[in-house]
Design goal:
This protein has helices spanning 12-25, 28-44, 47-59, 69-82, 87-115, 132-138, 142-154, 159-166, 170-188, 196-202, 231-242, 255-262, 339-346, 354-359, and strands at residues 208-214, 219-226, 274-276, 280-282, 300-301, 304-310, 317-319, 330-336. The chain is an alpha+beta fold.
């Protein structure tokens, strides 16, 4: 939750209207007072009020400074999405703000590295670091340098509202994720910001065809996946589809672990349900695909993501809760590959004789 829910009623529509009018009038004092009122009222409003307010708050985001008030207003709009507001109607202003801050934070890092000693580490993202010496080191005009420094310090504040819209709409992910993901990964690689959740949400695959080869039986399948937050969830769903469907041998996942992976209604709090590994997940070149990773980690071969399943090298188990509670996963077996197709795909793996070897 972005905000804790309160029970008191409020006139959120009226305070949002006041904020809209104050912004239109370019009245700074009035805008500040209305902004504070909205931040208070969005916490105590009914969900029906939040549904209406969310898109109205989101559309106001460009009118506010890129750091400070803007991420706070995005938090409020994201909270409204959590309580039922249309994610697609709120997404563009929120994710535009995310993108701007990611790029500004990367530019901060570039300038910091370019103007200091080789051994200088990037600073921790804390506004206490911002002083005249830091701004001078960044160069450019003071306003620009301040914006870059603030973005470096505040970019993580955009993560909750971004997740609110990304995890509730495949349409939003299709429209925006690919543009944001490279910058998110580049910034996360600098190891000063915890952006794992945002990176995972941006990398979610929707309606993605996956070629799956089961090496022990020499069989192949085409599976369409979507909304899967990590490979633990993928592992459970592949076992459900292939073992549970009687296509390959193994232990069928429990009904509860499958429900937790697929049910549109999220689990209420952390469960004690345990899922057990059925396969070893491998890329075509034999490299392991880690359960802690993403379906997006599965390399593309000849235009399709190609995943090889082998016997597990040791017993694995994990908590069956999904990575994104509000994002149900899907895995659908669309067809069993013919023997010729399977041989062709196996020939593209590091052990192209896999079928012959396991069928002797």
């Amino acid at each position: 939750m972005i905000f804790k829910r309160k029970r008191e009623a409020s006139g959120l529509a009226a305070t949002v209207s006041e904020l809209e009018e104050a912004v239109a009038a370019r009245d700074g004092g009035r805008t500040g007072r209305a902004f504070t009122a909205v931040m208070n009222d969005v916490q105590s409003a009914s969900d029906a009020e939040r549904v209406v307010a969310g898109p109205r708050l989101a559309v106001l985001l460009p009118a506010f400074p890129p750091t400070g008030p803007r991420p706070m207003l995005a938090m409020a709009a994201g909270f409204c999405v959590e309580r039922g507001a249309d994610p697609a109607a709120c997404a563009e202003p929120i994710l535009d703000g995310v993108h701007r801050d990611l790029l500004d934070a990367l530019e901060f890092a570039r300038r910091w590295t370019a103007t200091g000693a080789a051994e200088d580490e990037l600073p921790e993202p804390d506004e206490k670091i911002i002083d005249d010496a830091l701004l001078a080191r960044l160069g450019g005009d003071v306003y620009e340098a301040t914006r870059l420094a603030l973005a470096w310090c505040s970019v993580e504040e955009w993560q909750p509202p971004a997740l609110a819209v990304l995890c509730r709409s495949a349409e939003v992910r299709r429209r925006h994720a690919s543009a944001l993901l490279p910058a998110c990964r580049d910034l996360a690689a600098l190891e000063r910001h915890d952006l794992k959740c945002l990176a995972y949400a941006l990398a979610v695959l929707d309606d993605e065809p996956l070629v799956v080869l089961h090496r022990p039986t020499g069989t192949g399948f085409e599976v369409h996946i979507g909304g899967i937050g990590d490979n633990f969830q993928l592992h459970t769903l592949l076992a459900h589809v292939l073992v549970g469907g009687g296509h390959v041998p193994g232990t069928t996942p429990s009904a509860e672990s499958v429900r937790l992976a697929t049910d549109p209604e999220p689990a209420q709090g952390r469960t004690q349900t345990v899922a057990t590994g059925t396969f070893e997940l491998l890329a075509a070149d034999g490299e392991r695909i880690w359960n802690e990773g993403l379906p997006d980690d599965i390399p593309v071969v000849e235009g399709r993501r190609l995943l090889v399943l082998d016997e597990p090298t040791y017993q694995r188990s994990w908590n069956a809760d999904r990575f994104f509670p509000h994002l149900p996963g899907t895995a659908e077996l669309t067809r069993v590959l013919t023997a010729d197709e399977t041989r062709t795909w196996f020939a593209r793996t590091s052990s192209g004789d896999g079928i012959r070897r396991h069928r002797r």
